[in-house]
Amino acid sequence: MYLKERIKELAKQFTSEYVGVRRHLHQYPELSFKEYDTSAFIRKELEKIGIIDIVSVAGTGLMATLHGREKGKTILLRADMDALPIQEENQVDYASNIAGVMHACGHDVHMSSLLLTAKILFQLRSEFIGTVKFLFQPGEELMPGGATLVMEEKAYKELGMVPHLGQHVMPKLPAGKVGFRAGQFMASMDEVYLTVIGKGGHAAVPEECVDPILIASHIIVASQQLVSRMASPKTPSVLTFGKIIGDGANNVVPDRVTIEGTFRTYDENWRDLAIEKLTKLAKGLAEAMGGECEVNIPKGYPHLNNEVSLTNSMKNSAITFLGEANVVDLDLWMAAEDFAYYSQRNPACFYLLGVGNTEKEITSGLHTSTFNIDEMALETGGGLMSWLTIEALV
Fold this sequence. Notes:
four-stranded antiparallel β-sheet; 16 strands
């Protein structure tokens, strides 16, 4: 129990410093695969801690190494680095200084929490056996996902199969709490791009046109059969279209309509079949109505699988560290994460870090312009990951 209490003391001692780190990162967000200043800042912070074994990966990413008192097991801890193209609306003194760019998914928290973990473990390096890899990964928000690039790097391949830990902020969970789910956790994600091509013209003479807006509307409605009638009720699936552009006018039928959406599920075989069925449906329906449909569905992230024995072990360790009341069981989450690529090849545990606080009115969801956190969650995030790391290396 000495190490548990020591970690808690160090987390409490260093949290204010890493609140400052988080605020700096929040003020200067960078988009996917453009995290140049972020990378340079993180490298300096690692060197300030005393960790100098640092290599670049995936362009702007970094992998740092910390050895314990002697050789043993290896574990990889991952944080993502990129921000989103969102204009921040929070009225705080650390709001984004970059127009149209914001850390609205908490990656600034992930980075600062992992840096706090690095500082705690550096202080305790004589107390544990094994090696810790700190991975700061770029491009989580943009396909093909920075994880795919990291996995091609020599420094990563040399690791072999090792446990991977990652955490993600969750405003629906109060700060101080964390959540775990063993097995399938997050969904696969494929982007759907449809271009419906018709024949434009005057809205008053529809018989001379092939209306792509009408065709597109039929495709959108009919494609919901993928979920309601073609998918097994035992397999969670989501098909959502979030963008439609038909650039005509009140009296103009356009030549084409573009549609963008996402398809998500947990079964890789059904995933492939669903994409095939959607392609045939869109093309066939458009043709039957006199037009055509171009379909582009680039393959995205797989589903995220938390290895059962590792995740159950980490959950029990979290209960030991935080208390049973602060560790909750999670349901399936239809969001997607490129950490899933790591989980397909390695024993992985990806858990949620509570950052919400209703009393402070910190309740906005992820990917919103008013997303914010209760910064005391950093103490939980950095402290818990330090404890889980030491427990996993035993």
